[in-house]
Specification:
With 140 residues, the protein is of the alpha+beta class. It has two domains: 38 residues, N-terminal domain of TfIIb; 99 residues, GMP Synthetase, Chain A, domain 3, CATH 3.30.300.20. It contains three helices and six strands. The strands form two sheets. Strands 1-2-3 form a three-stranded antiparallel β-sheet, with no helix packed on it. A three-stranded mixed β-sheet has the order 4-5-6, with helices on one face. This is OsmC family protein. InterPro entries: KH_dom-like_a/b (IPR015946), OsmC/Ohr_fam (IPR003718), OsmC/Ohrsf (IPR036102).
Length: 140
């Protein structure tokens, strides 16, 4: 896996993934940025959310659950001192669908957290406390 980060100006960068997709990263105006892209630490949270969401949806699909929507809301806390690393992250899934089994949704979230989500497991090994939760919304 490869990526390239190219400086544009001030604190704006373009990140290109090995698969050829580009994302803009920029800082806040009070740090010389123009607020035209996500911050690098926000990108880490997005990566974590995408990784675990991919797992949960894959597992629920294999379990033949009728998922109509899945949203992962992520809240993170960072250390006050430099480096301002993440200290705690909470991921809450809202899974909407028809006849969803609570035990299977719970199992999918747990398997992602403990076995499959490389981003989550890597951050935990680095000392970040990561918790997970879920809400099921039944759709008629």
């Amino acid at each position: 896996m490869k990526a390239t980060i190219k400086w544009v100006d001030n604190v704006m960068f373009l990140g290109e993934s090995g698969s050829g997709h580009t994302v803009v990263m920029d800082g806040p105006e009070d740090h010389g940025g123009r607020n035209m892209g996500v911050r690098p630490m926000e990108m880490l949270l997005l990566g974590l959310g995408g990784c675990t969401s991919f797992d949960v949806m894959s597992i629920l699909s294999k379990q033949r659950q009728q998922v109509l929507d899945c949203v992962a809301d992520i809240e993170a806390e960072r250390a006050d001192a430099v480096p301002s690393v993440f200290t705690r992250i909470h991921v809450n899934f809202t899974v909407s669908g028809k006849n969803l089994k609570q035990s299977l949704v719970e199992r999918a979230v747990k398997l992602s957290a403990e076995k499959y989500c490389s981003a989550s497991i890597m951050l935990e090994q680095g000392g970040v406390e990561i918790t997970h939760g879920y809400t099921i919304v039944e759709v008629d």
